[in-house]
Amino acid sequence: MSIVVTGAAGFIGSNIVKALNERGVKEIIAVDNLTKADKFKNLIDCDIVDYLDKQDFIERIQAGHYDGEIDAVFHEGACSDTMESDGRYMMENNYRYSMILLDWCQDQDVQFLYASSAATYGSTAVFKEERQYEGPLNVYGYSKFLFDQIVRQRLAKGASSQIVGFRYFNVYGPRETHKGRMASVAFHHFKQFSAEGKVKLFEASHGYDNGGQMRDFVFVDDVAKVNLFFLDHPEKSGIFNLGSGRSQSFNDVAVATVNGCLRAKDAASPVAPLTLDQLRAQGLLEYIPFPEALKGKYQAFTEADLTRLRAAGYAAPMATVEEGVSRYVAWLEQNV
C-alpha cells in the first residue's frame, strides 16, 4: 500500500505516519512545507519512502507523475492559525490546494481522508454535522467550512472513491512542540509549570464565576485511530466530528497537567493527586485576564456529537482529559 500524508511533519500528520508505521506500512510519501524546519523532528522516528515540498507535490500530481501509484491520501496539511488575518493566503493554502487534491483523488479512485475542523461551527451550542449549526468565526474556520460544502456536493452526486472529512476538536498530545502559540492548552500548561512552578488560566475559563468555559479535548492517539479505521473501510464516506464526545473545563486540563508533572517529579514516592482547590490554595494555579484579541473569535463551548461516527462503526472509547493528559505529560517529560 502506497500512501501520501500531507502535513506529514506537522502534529496530526506525523502521528498518522507513526500509526501507519506501527501497523507495518512504510510506503509513505511525506508532503509538507519545512520553511519552519524544526518540524522535521516529528519524523525522526518514522519511516517514509520520500519527502516532497507541498508545492512540488501538487505540481507533480497535476503533471501525472503519480497516476496509478497511490492508494490513499491523508490530507492534514493546512494553515491552522486561527488568528491569521491574510484571507487570500488562507483560502489558497487551505481551500484551493484541497480542491486540487480532491479532484485528483476522485479522478484516480484514491481514498481521500482530510482534516476539517470544529472551527466550522463557530459560536453554536449544537455540534452536529449539519449545515444549520455551522457559522465560522474566522477565515480559518471559513476555509474549512467552504471545502466541507464542496465535499457534501460531491458526495450527493456520487463520489467515485472514498471522501472522509474529520472535524477535529481540541486535539492535544505528542509531536506538537513546533506549533508555538497554536499548541494545545495541555502543552502550554506543561511549559508554564516547568518554567514557573504554576499554571495560568484565563479568568473566564475557571469554574468560580459564571463564565466557565468548556471544550472538547481529544487525545491525538484517538485521532490517529479514527483515521486508520476509515482507511480500513473505504466504503464509508462523509463528514464526521472527531472529538472525545465530552466537554471538560480548562481547569480539568490544568489539574491533570500539574498532577502529571508532580507525579514525574516524585516518581519514587508518589502522593495523592491534588484537587483544584488545593492547587489554588498552594499557588500552583492562578487566573489572568482574558486577552482582548481573542474576544469574539473564540469558541467558549464545544462538545462533539459523535452520533454519526458511532453509526459508521467506530466503537472504541475516547480518552478523558485525565487519561490523555497524564499520558501526554509522561511523554513530554521524556521528549521535551
How would you write the strand order of the largest sheet?
A: 3-2-1-4-5-6-11
Summed over residues and divided by their number, the pLDDT gives a mean of 93
Count the beta strands.
Answer: 13
Number of helices: 10
- Derived structural class: alpha/beta
Report the biggest beta sheet as strand number plus sense, adding barrel if it closes: 7 strands, parallel
Q: What is the H/E string?
A: EHEEHEHEHEEHEEEHEEHHEHH
Could you tell me how far the N terminus lies from the C terminus, measured between alpha carbons in angstroms?
Answer: 33 Å
Rounded to the nearest angstrom, the radius of gyration is 20 Å
Give the low-confidence spans: 205-211
Q: Which overall shape is indicated by the principal axes computed on the Cα atoms?
A: globular
Helix content: 25-40%
Residues in β-strands, percent: 15-25%
